[in-house]
């Protein structure tokens, strides 16, 4: 029930239709790991349409680029570093880890949020270890709720993630990444992943992709985003996509109750 409440709190109409009246398939795109490099960040922020920009905390260009993203009508996400199973030397500043107490965890998260303007939500950077721990993920979701309706996008760096379950229990709007655009940093492979995104959206009504500010990824997005409308697909902000996905899940629950 709290998930339904979260959908109501999102307060965004999910209904969008194509010219022939059929509901449009919705896609959202998050570009994360933004903030360290200015030129790549500017090109990301200038992408066509409401592509969401996820900033690593305390990086040199995050604050300025977040202001520009907001001015361009793009959502700003905190790309929160979370402890992984391996390669934790890559976490960077502002990371949360399993050995932190709740006050340490919350202080780190709040400092990250305070340093970044216009934040709408959070997604995890790395996190293949931390996102499977219900206690820490509950601390995170409770803080998102205290911050006044921030949402959570699970990057899904592990199949063992409990993020959606903990978000549902606390009543935080949450969704997940369906497609990684650029695990292979190759234009042809990225274009194929973009087609997978469109196919997934047409099948389930909505789909969310995560990519990185690589020149190859940005070039594919610059070319492909303007063609989405004629394919009957609409690029929307993450919050709109979450609202649509909750509506869909609610309808599925209602259908299963009435059976
Ligand atoms: Zn990342």
Provide a descriptive summary of the structure in words.
The protein has a single domain, classed as TIM Barrel (Alpha-Beta Barrel), CATH 3.20.20.370. Helix content is 42%, strand content 18%. It is built from 9 helices and 9 strands. Strands 1, 2, 3, 4, 5, 6, 7, 8 and 9 form a 9-stranded parallel sheet that branches. The longest helix is centred in the last third of the chain and has 20 residues, at 238-257. The radius of gyration is 18 Å and the shape is globular. The structure holds zinc ion. Zinc ion (ZN) is lined by residues 32-33, 79, 125.
Number-wise, the strands total 9
Number of domains: 1
**Rounded mean pLDDT score:** 92
Which second-level CATH architecture applies?
Answer: Alpha-Beta Barrel
- Count of DSSP helices? 9
What hetero molecules are bound to the protein chains? zinc ion
